Amino acid sequence: MTEVTRCFEDFSVGDVWPLGSKVVTRAEIAAYAAQFDPREPYLSGDIAAPWHIGGLFMRQYYDTLLKGSSGRGSPGIEDLTWPATLKADEAIAVAAEVLETRVSNSRPDMGLVRFRFIVRNERGDDVMVGTSWTMFGKREVSDAVA
Question: Residue 17's closest CA among 55, 53, 67?
C-alpha cells in the first residue's frame, strides 16, 4: 500500500503548488493531433491542441500533487480556458493555487480543495487556466485506515 503523504489538512488558501515544467516538442504535438484531433493537421505540429495542453497538465498534476495523496477525485471542472497558444518546442510551467478549502458537509472524513490551475508558456502567457474542486481524505481518517 502506498503511504499517504498529502491530505486535506496540507492545503491552505493562498498556497501555490508548483507542478513542474516540460518542453513540448513538435513531434509530440503532431502525434497528439494525428491520434486525437483530426482538425489539427493543417497546423503541421506548430501549435498544441487545447486538449493536448489539458492532458499535459493532468500528467503534471498527478505526478506532482495527487500521486501518494489521499485524493478521492473531483466533482468536475468549474471553468476552463485556453487564452494563448502553446507553440512547438516551448516549455510549460504548471502550478495549482489553493482558492478555497472546506470540510465536506455530507462526508466529514473528507475535505474539498478548490484550485486554480495555470499552465504558462515560456513567454509568460497563460495557455490554460481552470478552476475545479478536488476531494481529499482528512489526515486523521487516512492514518487510521493505513
Answer: 67
At 94, list the grid cell: 504548471
Distance of CA 33 to the CA centre of its chain: 21
Question: Within 10 Å of residue 121's Cβ, how many Cβ atoms?
Answer: 20
10 Å CB burial of residue 113 (0-12, 13-18, 19+) is: buried
Cell readout for 123 is: 513567454
Q: Domains of the chain, with CATH numbers?
A: 8-145 (3.10.129.10)
Q: Provide the whole-model pTM.
A: 0.87
Is the pLDDT score of 41 beyond 70?
A: no
Task: Using alpha carbons, select from 129, 121, 118 the residue that is nearest to residue 90.
Answer: 121
Burial code of 45-56, b = ≥16 C-beta within 10 A, e = fewer?
bebbbbebbbeb
CA proximity to 136, closest of 97, 103, 105, 106: 103
1-10, 25-34, 50-59: least confidently modelled range: 1-10
